[in-house]
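Incident review: delayed structure delivery

Summary: a single-chain prediction request sat in the queue longer than the usual turnaround. Root cause was a stuck worker, restarted by the on-call engineer. No data loss occurred. The affected request and its eventual output are reproduced below so the record is complete for anyone auditing the incident later.

Affected input:
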Amino acid sequence: MQWTVVIPVKGTPSAKSRLGGSAALAHAIALDTVEAALGAASVIVVTPAENAADFEALGARVVADTGGGLSGAVATGIQAAGDVPVAILLGDLPALLSSELSAALAEASTLDRSFVPDAEGTGTSLIASTTDHAPAFGAGSAQRHRDAGYERLEVSESSGLRRDVDTPDQLAALGDRVGPRTRTRQP
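Output delivered after worker restart:
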């Protein structure tokens, strides 16, 4: 099954404010995430126009984020993908490996709707659907996705697919497992 992965990327100076507000670090994390995703599927990045060139240079298709926060960006990406199986991947997974995403998408191909929780088990790093989506990202999203009919994919807690980065401690815990751009931008 051929998947399209939509990755919303905030791309503003306030991106990753809990991580210290470094726009350069947030951008590096997003680039590493997109590059890993491209090894597993076609990718649409939803981001402000000023960020387009870096993602296009990697081989991603870029769609302009016209506002509406994360929910708006996700809806824009789903619409841009068209009538194909679509996965929504958050852009803050600097330790993600292409093989991890490929394995998750292979399992997702057998289900109508599926999700991968973050390492804490309360948030969501990926949702996938072979039919239609009911995204519910934000605090407590893992339970909301379950309630919307998404089935949990069996992904190891140590997988880069579950290791989203919102705080300096989360980034530090990944050590040298992060992608090359993130590694050079770490504080």
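Verification: Residues 23-38 form the longest helix (16 residues).
Action items: add queue-age alerting; document worker restart procedure.
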